[in-house]
Write a structure and sequence with these properties.
45% of the residues lie in helices and 8% in strands. By secondary structure, the protein is of the alpha/beta class. Bound molecules: iron/sulfur cluster.
Length: 473
């Protein structure tokens, strides 16, 4: 028993031996990753005097947009490295991990979605300092954040995904008529740009194929635009129409959704099994000739999608559009004043006996009928394809376009609204109601916010607004 008191003495740290706890011991367990992100975004770790693990200084010029979806934590950010020649500003994303090793553990190093990361933040690392590399083998600067900076700080709550910009004040002071004029001008400019891109595509691919590709891209919106564009190129409209009933099997095969005859079909998936067998039978006879065109699995982003928006269902919609192509052409040529109504009726009326009741190739039958193209998608297709084409041919369609209600909106629209109008929802709300105003917002955001690398300081938009011709000269 006499040793016990010695051990008790060992547990008592004499005065003067009190040790400062290393940052790692302010366990990150006390803070969730979300809280840490909130602290970072609120600037609690600072922005100007960060030091990379290599010793070079790092300055955060723009905190970017807090991304709550898949992908890096903060997108559209900008950082500067004052010690490098010419102190370049790098635009890209920022990732914050609790541990440095999480970069590899979470597969970011092999994920192309993380290729534009310019800064990797972390709180702890193991015995060895791991490197951060992208799938392109580019080394990413690392900053080891010090948790002690957060002592006694409470994570900010309800932070919006973006910060208001310098122009948010001046814009709010403008009259509603002036803001409407500005956004309408930007939306019309955007339409012109779209139209020029469209003309170039049509000159290379032909009118029908260009239209088909554009519609395919809107079906891939927003996570899978690229694979849809590639599929529309690899199985062009003419070929798809010529294949008739085999078209869907070819599209599924080229998409990489028919890699094996062994599918694990949901229980009670008799109908799915029969559908798959038929498509597989068609595909495997053509597979060797088309093998090199098959998209890799990683081309698709499937996480975070609503089941009803699964790309397999959207491919079925593309097949329907090809099959009913003369009706698609007639809508653009003869939609007249009713363009919005007619296009919506046509698109939301597309049917497919299998996909009207299945979320994916392997899911069991849904008792509830599922729309192949929902109203929100139809509205996006109207705003991005049908109206721009119709307005280019007959500018009078602008009046109907200007009244087109906005779709569900996107994170980028919300970001643009906060940047330009500030946190107060009432400021931006009137300008989020129509597709045209949202397009105008996006144009300003892309032309100025995305080009700015000075956290608004050198952006000339606020000054340019003062010189804008609000009244017709
Ligand atoms: S970058 Fe320019 S346009 Fe964007 S929020 Fe800042 S001042 Fe406004």
């Amino acid at each position: 028993m006499e040793l016990a008191h010695r051990y008790a003495a060992l547990l008592t740290v004499p005065d003067g031996m009190l040790r400062e706890a290393p940052a790692e011991e302010f366990s990150s367990v006390q803070k969730s990753e979300l809280e840490l992100q909130a602290h970072w975004f609120a600037g609690d770790f600072g922005s100007s005097f960060l030091t990379a693990t290599t010793g070079e200084r790092v300055e955060v010029v723009q905190f970017g947009v807090w991304n709550h979806d898949a992908g890096p934590d903060f997108t559209e950010a900008a950082v500067r490295f004052p010690d490098r020649p010419d102190a370049p500003v790098l635009r890209g994303s920022i990732e914050l991990d609790t541990r440095a090793e999480d970069w590899e553990r979470h597969g970011h190093g092999g994920n192309a979605a993380f290729d534009d990361v310019v800064l990797h933040l972390y709180l702890q690392h193991g015995p060895r300092q791991p490197f951060t590399r992208t799938s392109q083998h580019r080394q990413v600067a690392q900053v080891h954040l010090d948790l002690r900076q957060l002592e006694h700080r409470v994570a900010p709550v309800d932070l919006p995904s973006a910060r208001p910009g310098r122009c948010s004040g001046p814009l709010r002071e403008r009259s509603a008529e002036e803001v409407r004029t500005l956004l309408t001008a930007a939306a019309q400019y955007r339409l012109q740009l779209k139209n020029r891109r469209w003309q170039r595509l049509a000159a290379v691919r032909g009118y029908d194929q260009a239209l088909f590709q554009s519609l395919a891209v809107t079906l891939g919106y927003k996570e899978n635009k690229l694979p849809f564009a590639l599929l529309a190129q690899r199985l062009p409209l003419k070929t798809l129409r010529a294949e008739g009933d085999g078209g869907m099997a070819l599209l599924l095969g080229l998409a990489g959704f028919l890699q094996t005859p062994e599918f694990s079909v949901d229980q009670d998936g008799r109908e799915a099994r029969a559908y798959l067998r038929e498509r597989w039978e068609f595909w495997w006879r053509r597979r060797s000739a088309m093998e090199r065109l098959v998209l890799p699995t990683k081309a698709w982003k499937l996480s975070g999608l609503r089941p009803v928006n699964h790309p397999q269902r959207r491919l079925a919609a593309l097949v329907q559009l090809a099959a009913r192509w003369p009706e698609v052409q007639a809508l653009i040529d003869g939609g007249g004043n009713d363009l919005a109504k007619q296009v919506t009726k046509f698109l939301t009326g597309l049917r497919d006996p299998f996909w009207d009741h299945h979320y994916t190739l392997t899911s069991a039958r849904s008792a509830r009928p599922l729309a192949l193209v929902g109203a929100a998608r139809a509205s996006e297709m109207l705003a991005n394809v049908f109206f721009p084409l119709a307005i280019a041919a007959h500018p009078v369609h602008w009046d109907a376009y200007a009244k087109l209600p906005a779709g569900t909106g996107s994170r980028r629209v919300a970001t643009a609204a906060t940047r330009l109008f500030g946190h107060d929802p009432a400021g931006a709300e009137p300008w989020l109601k129509t597709a045209a105003h949202q397009q105008g917002l996006l144009q300003i955001y892309e032309d100025f916010c995305l080009e700015d690398d000075s956290d608004c300081a050198r952006c000339t938009f606020p000054e340019r607004v003062c010189r804008f011709a609000f009244v017709r000269g």
